[in-house]
Amino acid sequence: MSQKRVAAIKIEDDPEGYPLGAFCIPAHYADYLEKIIIPLGVVKDRTEKLARDIVEDIGDGPIVALCVLKGGHQFFHDLLEWIQIIGRTSTKNIMQIRVDFIRLKSYVNEESTGEVQIIGNDDLNGIRGRNVLVVEDIVDTGKTMEKLLGELKKYEPKMVKVASLLTKRSKARIHGQAYTPEYVGFDVPKKFVVGYSLDYNEYFRDLGHICLINEKGKEKFKSD
Ligand code: IMP
């Protein structure tokens, strides 16, 4: 009997997390983080499960996997790697994957600018008539994803599903009023998180674990 799916793993509002000394942290960030909230190994294990859920749901035909840069690149890599592992160890015909990339920007420091800019993309004509899996790092208010989904619609894909490693627990989301992706790894509190490709003004992407940044870090790496 298959186990019931968990929509997203909830990280508590004031998570105890893990002390920085419990895992390995690059020395250049050690003074600027508060705690680890999701260790890299847990991210990877959850990604395997999401890959299996995706294959179970839409795995019997070709898809275009669309990576939302820059923050989504690590999750995209790991998710696709798992989908390929599942494919080569299965006797069934598992999804054939094409990849595309799109670059969006909406944040400065910890704040959304309220405007979502598409600042680079492949020729999106490749998604016409195809099943698309959008892969994103984090969905907060959902505005970025809504804007992107609006753009994608213009190219008339057959179907679009979204996998996001994280969602943020905004009031709107708690009340079911914010866009929520089909596949979510973890639901995190309304705090700024970094690591595993998630950045603060382009810093912390080269940190494996998902962490909370401290006040010293916000000041040190703030944008002018
Ligand atoms: P939304 O439009 O409010 O859903 O914001 C989503 C985008 O904001 C993501 O694609 C990220 O680039 C960025 N973002 C939101 N929260 C965070 C965070 O805690 N850390 C890093 N980036 C974030």
What is the straight-line distance between the termini?
55 Å
Gyration radius, rounded: 17 Å
Helix/strand-derived class? alpha/beta
CATH topology: Rossmann fold
CATH architecture identity: 3-Layer(aba) Sandwich
Strand order of the largest sheet: 1-8-7-6-3-4-5
**Care to count the β-strands?**
10
Strand content: 25-35%
Any idea how many domains? 1
Mean pLDDT level: 90
The helix/strand series, from N terminus to C terminus, equals EEHEHEEEHEHEEEH
CATH level-1 class: Alpha Beta
Shape descriptor:
globular
Number of helices: 5
Instruction: Report the bound ligands by name, code or SMILES.
Output: inosinic acid
Structure in words:
The protein has 224 residues and is of the alpha/beta class. It has one domain (16-220): 3-Layer(aba) Sandwich (Rossmann fold), CATH 3.40.50. The chain is built from five helices and ten strands. The chain has helices spanning 40-58, 73-88, 143-153, 171-174, 215-220, and strands at 9-10, 33-38, 63-69, 97-108, 111-121, 131-139, 159-168, 183-188, 193-194, 210-213. A seven-stranded mixed beta sheet has the order 1-8-7-6-3-4-5, with helices on both faces. The protein has a three-stranded antiparallel beta sheet with strand order 2-10-9. The model has no long low-confidence stretch (mean pLDDT 90). Inosinic acid (IMP) binds at residues 71, 106-107, 112, 136-144, 168, 192-194, 198.
